[in-house]
Specification:
It is flat, with a radius of gyration of 36 Å. The two termini are about 40 Å apart. Strands 14, 15, 16, 17 and 18 form a five-stranded antiparallel β-sheet that branches. Strands 4-3-6-5 form a four-stranded antiparallel β-sheet, sandwiched between helices. Helices cover about 50% and strands about 20% of the residues. The relative contact order is 0.09. β5 and β6 form a beta hairpin. With about 625 residues, it is α+β, with helices and mostly antiparallel strands. The protein folds into five domains: about 180 residues, Triger factor/SurA peptide-binding fold; about 110 residues, Chitinase A, domain 3 (Roll), CATH 3.10.50; about 100 residues, Chitinase A, domain 3 (Roll); about 90 residues, no CATH class; about 90 residues, Chitinase A, domain 3 (Roll), CATH 3.10.50.
């Protein structure tokens, strides 16, 4: 009997240790040690004594949980704004978690490594015929591949087999230039080697690495385009070229005339509106001739000769060289790659590989149904016909299930209607589309139930929701209440009047400007004209900040100790962000003085909010008596 009792005690203790330990209760609600420690570790504070810091944080955390519970009692979680913000945050957070699950970090690292070199790419390309019959071109591309394997030069094979000589030269490419499936092939090629035939939507390719170079990065440039009209005669083209050459000679003599020449001659309506400035670009975004000319420029301000493309003649001026990132560990570099990857199909492909795992987690179970009748039902729904005339399939027929969801024929019909007209789905059979739908439904279910599969996601969502509720209830019970309680504010001011006094102070105007050039110019304009300071500062739009008020002398930014006097302009103080701040002193109050209620209102409001909060917490503790489990608290290290 004694042995049975000991064993039972062991099992009970083991069971208790596997469950979350209650740190404190408030009313009938429970807060666990685990959630408290997690919150503390995110907000450890500055107190070096951990035990003391834990005790201080426990008091704050108890108050936090009481306030959040008050928000739930007030049903603030049903507020439309709360629901909207929660849903938006959830979508963003779920996307981040799924991206991490798809190993976006590895994709960032891969993209960074590929970004360090540019590959000079050429190809044999045989275009798909209008009939979409691939028999002949498949044979032709394989013949070309055999010729290469037998030692024939790439140039000769490309010239003989390519559909058009203009398709052979692709210029330099880098990461994100081409679809990911091609990029993977190209970056495995060594210089002067070629790939096996590759099929694309437009035809067959054999890619050739004609050489490599360290990546040249991206460029900002401006252009003057002398457009050649379609079908222009040779004489007209010659006249346009002569005009471009003449403008080029003018610019060589005086590059400062570039803007003038843009407005006088450029036919590119988009860039001409912005002084010829083009959007930032990398290699292979334009034709090889354009690329070669621009990326040969070495210094901002340099010009290309007139470059001929299919659009006309371009005179291009280099404005800025943007080098490639040098470290994947640089947060800015990594963020740029991450943004591109999130827009690129490589992340889509990585997520597809996770679907089978998600289906298992979601407890996917296929149902038994008549496929032929389902396809007929789906076609009828797609064509706007009736769906109630089928014997074996109805709107409610279950096609498959997840743990907490049934997916019906009606659901599949909606999906079918939404994608059937999309080109990538139009040629798929019903069976193929059903497989796509199953994957899409599993992905959607996983994302919609991510809290059940990922504790970190669940915790972050809970933290966000509680923070939102805390803000809403604090605004309702403290901040807004204090702001509109004029009688309470005045009473608090009168009861604590001695607290609200001016130290030595001054009426002053404080100016903040973005740079030294603006500082010098503004001070010159203000000199002898301070009465017009508002109009002068306003002329700089948002580049100059100016505020007039009464300030305590300790609040006025100065370089060193300053003897404040009326009509004094203080020496400018350089801020950490490179901006400058200086002040103009209108009047000095050398002694201490009582602040009026109006002057003290901001300070009084802050103090009164603290009073209201203390009263409110006291009421909450009466409603939800707090009991701390000291023995559990003592186990927190």
């Amino acid at each position: 009997m004694k042995r049975l009792f000991i064993l039972l005690a062991i099992f009970l203790t083991a069971g208790m240790n596997t469950q979350a330990q209650t740190l404190f209760t408030f009313g009938k609600k429970v807060a666990t040690k685990e959630e408290f420690v997690r919150a503390f570790n995110k907000n450890p504070g500055l107190e070096p004594d951990r035990k003391k810091a834990l005790k201080e944080y426990l008091d704050l955390y108890i108050n936090f949980k009481l306030k959040v519970q008050a928000a739930y009692d007030a049903k603030l979680q049903e507020d439309p704004n709360y629901l909207y913000e929660t849903e938006n945050f959830r979508k963003q957070l779920a996307q981040n978690f799924i991206n991490e699950e798809a190993n976006i970090k590895a994709l960032v690292r891969e993209a960074f490594e590929r970004s360090q070199k540019d590959i000079h790419l050429r190809q044999v390309f045989i275009e798909l015929p209008a009939s979409n019959d691939t028999t002949q071109i498949s044979r032709k591309i394989n013949d070309a591949y055999s010729q290469l394997r037998n030692g024939k030069s790439f140039d000769k094979v490309a010239a003989e087999y390519s559909s058009d000589p203009g398709y052979i030269e692709l210029g330099h490419v880098t990461v994100f230039t081409l679809p990911y499936v091609f990029e993977n092939i190209i970056y495995k090629l060594k210089p002067n080697t070629y790939s096996a035939p590759v099929r694309s939507a437009s035809g067959y390719h054999i890619f050739y690495n004609a050489g490599e170079r360290p990546a040249v990065g991206r460029r900002k440039a401006a252009q003057i385009l002398f457009a050649i009209p379609p079908g222009a005669a040779a004489s007209e083209k010659a006249m346009i070229k002569n005009k471009a050459d003449s403008v080029y000679r003018v610019l060589l003599a005086d590059p400062r005339k570039f803007d003038e020449m843009v407005h006088a001659y450029s036919n590119d309506a988009v860039s001409a509106r912005d002084h010829g400035l083009m959007q930032e670009f990398g290699v292979s975004q334009y034709t090889p001739a354009f690329d070669a000319a621009v990326f040969a420029l070495r210094k901002p301000g340099e010009l290309t000769h007139p470059v001929e493309t299919e659009f006309g003649y371009h005179i291009i001026q280099l404005r800025e060289i943007i080098p490639v990132g040098r470290s994947a560990d640089d947060p800015v570099v990594a963020a740029g790659f991450k943004t591109n990857i999130e827009k690129d199909n490589r992340l889509v492909e990585a997520k597809k590989s996770l679907v089978s795992k998600w289906m298992k987690l979601a407890k996917y179970k296929p149902a038994v149904f008549d496929e032929k009748e389902l396809w007929a039902y789906t076609d009828s729904a797609y064509q706007g016909g009736k769906t109630n005339g089928f014997r074996k399939i109805t709107d409610a027929t279950v096609l498959f299930t997840f743990e907490k969801q049934k997916v019906t024929a009606s659901d599949f019909a909606k999906y079918f209607r939404s994608v059937r007209h999309v080109p990538m789905y139009a040629a798929m059979s019903h069976s193929e589309l059903f497989k796509e739908y199953t994957k899409a439904a599993a992905t959607d279910y996983y994302q919609s139930h991510l809290e059940e599969f990922n504790a970190d996601f669940r915790n972050q969502m809970n933290e966000f929701n509680e923070a939102n509720l805390l803000f809403a209830i604090m605004d309702r019970e403290v901040w807004s209440k204090a702001a509109i309680d004029d009688a309470g504010l005045r009473e608090h001011y009168e009861q604590n009047k001695a607290k609200y006094r001016w130290d030595p102070s001054a009426d002053a105007i404080i100016f903040t400007v973005p740079d030294e050039g603006t500082l010098v110019e503004l001070q010159q304009r203000l000199s002898g004209n301070m009465q017009s300071w508002r109009a002068i500062a306003g002329g700089y739009e948002n580049r100059v900040l100016a505020d007039s008020n009464r300030y305590e002398l300790s609040q006025i930014p100065v370089v060193d100790r300053t003897a404040f006097t009326a009509d004094l302009t203080t020496a400018p103080v350089k801020n950490n962000d490179g901006s400058y701040t200086f002040s103009y002193i209108i009047r000095v109050y050398p002694g201490t003085a009582q602040r009026s209620f109006t002057e003290a209102r901001g300070l009084v409001t802050n103090d009164y909010q603290a009073v209201l909060e203390q009263r409110w917490i006291a009421d909450l503790k009466k409603k939800y008596p707090v009991k701390v489990n000291q023995s559990v608290f003592n186990t927190i290290k």
